[in-house]
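Record filed here:
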Amino acid sequence: MNKFLLAVFASLLLYGCGPNYLLEGNHEFPDAQWAYADSLRFEFDVEDTTRIYNLYAELTHSVDYSFQNVYTRIHTLMPSGQRLTKMVSLELTDKMGLWTGDCTSKTCQIRLPIQEDLYFNQAGHYTIVVEQFMRQDQLPGLDEFSLLIEESEKKRQ
């Protein structure tokens, strides 16, 4: 019985040591297509301006997706009203053109860093809008997009 309680306690301790997220936003694409008109909106609040974060995108796509990447435009609206825009290419393959995510026979899932050691200068409400920015209006083969803001152990001074 004591070994069982020890195993349960150890499991809970390990489970509690996982990453903490300021944001875990997810969007599923209808009909497995991402269109220009489908801007993805993520909202969150920042209280601690000394904390450092890591920003990730996660994509789930078909193994039949036609491109090696997804060009995106990422807009950040800050509490002050200031808007920052950044172009980001989400690379889904290696240099040989092979999928780099965790793939099954039909789909792949990949986590890509967008910005590490990120911090927010202002406390308050933030909005991030992600747009696909490819040369094609409809991108068939994209199932899901997630935006994750992971809290790191680091703090600014």
Remarks:
- Residues 21-155 form a domain with the Jelly Rolls fold (CATH 2.60.120).
- The two ends are 47 Å apart (CA to CA).
